[in-house]
Amino acid sequence: MQGQDGGIDGRIPILSNQGNLNQLEAEAGFNIKIEKKQFSRLELNGFVGDLQGENLHTGIIVTASGLAPDAKAEVKRHNANNMELCHLLLEDLLSGEISCNQIQLLVDDWESNLKASLRRYYQNNK
């Protein structure tokens, strides 16, 4: 069911606290949704399920239109239960405004990586 599962579009290296005092190097799964409709609770839970299936506890969601209200509530619920989810608006990411609470991206050239990922995403979803 393409477009409904909110699956993992890629991985990115991060530093994460994950409830610890020490920061840990890890990987976060990311999902990019460039559509007019908001990222839904169904898509969010599909993304979380895929993260758990890959043994990842951190996820970054990049959207053009934001999270639906029920998806925002689910992010809070998952973040309170051993997950670290972060939502970024595409416009903020492209302007360099990256704020993900306990998550620090470890990508030197994240802009080039993001553009390459967006190109691949676009080509795979024409």
TrEMBL record:
<dbReference type="GO" id="GO:0009307">
    <property type="term" value="P:DNA restriction-modification system"/>
</dbReference>
<dbReference type="InterPro" id="IPR007560">
    <property type="entry name" value="Restrct_endonuc_IV_Mrr"/>
</dbReference>
<feature type="domain" description="Restriction endonuclease type IV Mrr">
    <location>
        <begin position="2"/>
        <end position="85"/>
    </location>
</feature>
<dbReference type="InterPro" id="IPR011856">
    <property type="entry name" value="tRNA_endonuc-like_dom_sf"/>
</dbReference>
<protein>
    <recommendedName>
        <fullName>Restriction endonuclease type IV Mrr domain-containing protein</fullName>
    </recommendedName>
</protein>
<dbReference type="GO" id="GO:0004519">
    <property type="term" value="F:endonuclease activity"/>
</dbReference>
<dbReference type="GO" id="GO:0003677">
    <property type="term" value="F:DNA binding"/>
</dbReference>
<dbReference type="Pfam" id="PF04471">
    <property type="entry name" value="Mrr_cat"/>
</dbReference>
